[in-house]
Amino acid sequence: MKRIVTPGELVTKEDKKMLSGVYKDAEGIRSEYVGVVYDNDIGIKVVPLKGKYSPKVGDVIIGKVITDDPFIHLIEVNSHKMGVIPKRTLEGYLNVNDIALMRVTVVNEVRDFDLEFMKKLYGGTLLEISPKKVARVIGKSRSMLEMIQKYTDTRLSVGGNGLIYVVGGNIALVKEVLEKIEEYSHVDNLTDKIEEFLKSKTEKKMWWMKLL
Length: 212
Prior knowledge:
This protein is of the alpha+beta class.
């Protein structure tokens, strides 16, 4: 099981390459966050269990149009700041409350960022998970994502910022699964454990469907 640490907790006394989420003092390497320790041949880091999205150029994310003026759209993307889509870059128009898939194109020195519109998302529900858990939702070779879609009969668009757009099927069950991934992301073999949970929720229904 992976180790969870708190801010200021001593992670190791060994002299290791520090990657992220850690700092060094006279006693050794300490954690900056409440998070999970990753320690390997490359170095040591602590990944926060929670946190807002920090934009990086090239990220594909999901956002909601909050305000509109003659020149820009302001977009809520689960970050400390709102993203901006310059209207001159749009082939069509977005309206307030529209939800869309977007790409981060510019991030400046004070973390303001511009977005590129990719496509609108229709007919679904917007859910949220910590941006730090997005990789767990997707899984290796998309294994977790495809499994969730299979058992819940949904289609998921997953943004790198932790916003997830769910269309069709059992949205309530998707929400339950995301809550479990959020809570147990530090546990080994999480995909297998989530599959057991999904089977327990859906096998009875599938058994009845086979009789029809």
